[in-house]
Fold this sequence. Notes:
It is globular, with a radius of gyration of 18 Å. It has eight helices and five strands, in the order ααβαβααβαβαβα. The chain has a five-stranded parallel β-sheet with strand order 2-1-3-4-5, sandwiched between helices. The chain has a single domain (29-204), classed as Rossmann fold (3-Layer(aba) Sandwich). By secondary structure, it is of the alpha/beta class.
Amino acid sequence: MLSSLNLESVFSEAITGHLAVIHQLDSQRPHLEEVAMRMTQALLDGHKILWCGNGGSASDAQHLAAEFVGRYRRDRPGLASISLTANTAAVIGIANDYGFPEVFARQVEALCTPGNVFVGISTSGNSRNVCVALTRAQDMGAFTVAITGEHGGRLSGTADVWVRIPSRDTARIQEAYMLCGHMLCDWIELAACISNAVEAQRNAG
Length: 205
């Protein structure tokens, strides 16, 4: 018979671990602020945000790209944001023709332009296809961001900005990804709304 006491510890340990990681995220505020400002300026200048990751990180990439294109909290014009994980035909076709390490990099070649922001999400920081894509994005003049777990792997030493989630636990890292992503959405959406309001006043005057 299963022990309810042992099962309940699953919940308490998860909550305790989650809060411990979240409370340490304040150390990443300077990096998050830099990313937010870079993304805001890129979007206001007519550029776009590219996201990618594998597995759960692929879902995070799609979720956050969708928040920009649709809305987070406020009604405003759509913001140019693309998840490189979303086009199934492209991902499968590129993997078949060029190999899995190229599934994001090939899309970067097709979609990235100077002034874009590229975001690679990887709990280990060593996902080969994300690393290859980030390097390709840099070669094309994009500002690059790595969001990883505690050690950062190859991405931490390559990206222009490294957002470090202080954990080795994949689940806790992925939970923190979404908080970081939502904070970025909130900042950038508000900045875009302010910019639009200022522009409207300028045109009205």
